[in-house]
Amino acid sequence: MQITADTVIRTASIYQGLTARAVDHETYRYHRTFRGCFGVCPELAAELWNMLDDADPMSDIRWVTYFLATLMFLRTYTVTAVLAMIFMKDEKTIRHWVWVFIEKIATLDLVSDEQEFAFFFIFIHRRLHQQRALTMYMLLHSNTTPPDQMGVPTMNDNGSRCLVTVDGTDFRIREPGPFSTGWFTKKFNGPGLRYEIAVCIQTGWIVWINGPFPCGEWVDIAISLSSLVHMFEGDERAVADKGYRGYPQYFDCPWRHLDNQQQTSRKALARARHECVNRRLKEWSCLLQRWRHSLDKHGKMAMLWPTLCSSKLWSGQCGRWTTMIESTMSLTLIIIK
Predict the structure, then answer these.
(1) Most buried of 92, 98, 229, 242 (most Cβ within 10 A)?
(2) All structural domains of the chain with their residue ranges
């Protein structure tokens, strides 16, 4: 069942205590309030619902309520009791449907037939301190794609040697038992999980997520050496910060003085854009606040990142972030050595 932004607004306004007249008379203010509660604009919320419906048809209009509860959970990371009070549902019901929709969004394929993307997802599992955690890879090369994808070039490929920017980002968690210093991260002065994220230089999309890893046991360079570098071919490299020094065959770091001024400034801009990606991720409180669920569910949450960030970017909803992406698209005109 396909819906429109008006359907989303009418459903949300019921639980926000607003009349249709109030919404119509204060459209801009309401949209700002809607984004504050649900993390996206009504138009994008409707688009996400329609994409979910295309993948797995949903015939009950009442499910829109649970869909909005899921977005509010991701945006605010509030406890189930609060969601149950706001949406006037039972706590167990809300809890069940929130995680149902999280898994639906996580498995959503954003690549449509009209968009000529040459990358795709592979999902594998590994063990993390006896707990099952999800690792997601998005391959970077056409010659590592399945047979039906062979020969498709990388999007906006211009022969650049540096394909992606890479960096690690940490997230707060509760102290797992038994106590171990292997979880410690100095960023929070406490336990945390670390993910490696790579952003395509030519397009600005998240093309690689690897994790989670215990912060104290895995530094950024160790995570990359365990997996990402094996995806490079020939002399391909990634643009990275100083935490990746010591492996010039894989990473172009700021201390290298072999580049001209133009190349240096463009790489700095690409790294700055990557930091903006990390910041955008943590606009969702489920990633900003201390994670109170199981580590297995945190791994599943990582599957949402390309959907949440890429969808907002495609919709032009990110303001200065979209402008920054458009300005760095000039990188496609320069071969980054």
Answers:
(1) 98
(2) 5-106, 121-333
